[in-house]
Design goal:
With 487 residues, the chain is an alpha/beta fold. It folds into two domains: 5-207 and 221-314, 3-Layer(aba) Sandwich (Rossmann fold); 371-464, no CATH class. Helices cover 44% and strands 16% of the residues. It has helices at residues 5-14, 70-88, 94-110, 127-139, 191-199, 217-222, 227-235, 262-270, 272-301, 304-314, 322-331, 363-368, 371-390, 397-412, 446-451, 454-464, 467-476; strands at residues 27-30, 33-43, 48-55, 61-65, 120-125, 142-146, 161-170, 182-188, 420-423, 428-434, 439-445, 479-480.
């Protein structure tokens, strides 16, 4: 029987144990199976620790990257590593994790019998789960994580989604909600978490103005989430701990893992809207913190790093195992080859702010656009670029189309600007113009927007700019007062 989700969780938790390097002669029972510890790595300079296990009965090799352990090396783990992910989208422990996984691959090759090589997979909790996602993508491996920070939010050209990694998360966990994940995400919930979410304004009914709950002028101006999100996160701080995925509780007493409790999955599904709203607000908060810190860094040290990140963001995401393949090709490069990394050109040069995509329209349309339509195009592009940056989406023609579709729809709604944008789990773009008193809003299907040629949307904008259309635009505008709850 192959590794189960519970088996991976058991190893992710076991990786926190202090060890010395071993040759794997002895076996030990972890969870339901016996394992050999083939190798343990501890780098005191970065705080990284990781362990290579081999399951005795199936010969599977599992790399477990240790997560954040604040009572051991709080400075290195909490400030340098986790802080680096949130503030810079970088991680100084990634080279260690890649190196240990590379060693596991070599150990598997050394044990090959004919064409039968022990499979190598990865796991980890918290920061360790992030490193598991990174190493799985680097080498093209499978794996499972618990309460990981999403590696797709790092600046490593790792795409969100896919089926190679399964990421198990608690509904109230702040860390796993902070970034987009490489692989699938499975959510589990406890009654206490749902009660806390409800107490802080997260329910299973939504309205466009939900995005404004608890926001005052400062929050609206800066993009920071309202106090309810912070209060909920602090109240559910226990959700991040690994014991939820173990068959013992935080005090070592027998318990039942959420991975083996169908009720935990059912409760999460029944409250998917509330959980999704909370996790989305947490990710928005992480994005705001990142933007503020990067802005401060640019002021202090110049804009070189920021420019490099923009260039990096324009490159396509790498395929699983592509970096490993590049590494192998570099190793075997013949005479005259530089053996260096393969550089990928940006998919498309970025548009200037407020510019109309010239490749998709004729000069006539761009000349006939009114100041209002041009302003909407500028607002639309800024909002879509922010969305693309948050989710590490490479800029392509589909996003150009989305910019123009969004501007067209906003013009049809009688808007003169766009300062609110959100995409829900059903792929609906919810956009609006909020002036502090009234709210104009609308929805747009994201797939339809991406596949509507920009030229069609711009032609429609030209039509809407005609004087005969102005009365109809004013009559069609949806205007109402948003339901803003007091802070």
């Amino acid at each position: 029987m192959r590794m189960t989700s519970q088996d991976y969780a058991d190893l992710a938790i076991d990786s926190y144990r202090s060890r010395s390097p071993t040759r794997g002669d002895d076996t030990e029972t972890i969870g339901e199976h016996q394992y050999k510890v083939l190798y343990h790595q501890d780098n005191p300079k970065t705080g990284y620790q990781g362990t290579i296990y081999q399951r005795v009965d199936t010969r599977e090799i599992i790399v477990a990257h240790r997560g954040t352990e604040f009572d051991r090396e709080a400075l290195k783990d909490g400030v340098l590593a986790d802080g680096g992910m949130v503030l810079n989208r970088s991680n100084l422990q990634v080279p260690d994790a890649i190196g240990l996984t590379r060693k596991a691959m070599q150990l598997a090759q050394d044990q090959a019998v004919g064409d039968q090589t022990p499979p190598v997979t990865v796991t980890g909790h918290s920061l360790g789960g992030t490193l598991a996602q990174v190493s799985a993508h680097y080498f093209g491996l499978k794996g499972e994580t618990i309460n990981a920070y999403g590696a797709a939010s790092l600046n490593l050209r790792i795409p969100a989604g896919g089926n190679d990694v399964t990421n198990h998360v608690m509904a109230g966990d702040l860390v796993s909600a902070g970034g987009a994940h490489y692989g699938q995400v499975k959510v589990y919930a406890t009654p206490q978490e749902i009660q806390t979410l409800r107490a802080n304004g997260y329910h299973n009914t939504t309205h466009w103005s939900d995005a404004l709950r608890g926001y005052g002028p400062v929050q609206l101006a800066t993009g920071f989430t309202p106090p309810t999100t912070t209060r909920a996160a602090f109240a559910m701080s226990d959700s991040h701990k690994g014991h939820h995925f173990a068959n013992v509780d935080a005090n070592g007493r027998p318990d039942h893992s959420v991975l083996e409790d169908p009720a935990a999955s059912r409760l999460a599904r029944a409250n998917a809207v509330a959980i999704g709203e909370y996790r989305g607000d947490v990710q928005d908060m992480r994005g705001a913190i990142t933007a503020v810190s990067r802005g401060a860094s640019a002021v202090a040290h110049g804009t070189t790093g920021l420019a490099q990140e923009i260039i990096q963001g324009l490159k396509r995401p790498l395929q699983p195992g592509e970096r490993w393949q590049q590494e192998l090709e570099a190793r075997h490069a013949g005479p005259g080859s530089n053996g260096g990394p393969i550089h990928v050109a940006p998919t498309q040069a970025p548009l200037k702010a407020g510019a109309v995509p010239a490749a998709s329209i004729g000069p006539r349309a761009s000349l006939e656009l009114s100041p209002v339509s041009k302003s909407l195009l500028g607002d639309s592009e800024r909002q879509v670029r922010q969305l693309a940056s948050t989710h590490n989406l490479p800029w392509d023609r589909g996003l150009d189309n989305t910019v123009c579709s969004l501007a067209r729809c906003a013009r049809e709604q009688g808007m003169t600007g766009i300062n609110l944008l959100r995409v829900n789990s059903e792929g609906q773009i919810r956009y609006g113009q909020h002036d502090g008193i009234t709210l104009k809003d609308g929805t747009l299907d994201a797939r339809q927007a991406a596949n509507t040629p920009a030229a069609d949307s711009l032609s429609r904008l030209v039509q809407l700019d005609q004087p005969a259309q102005q009365h109809n635009l004013q009559a069609s505008a949806s205007v109402h007062e948003p339901l803003i709850r007091a802070m």
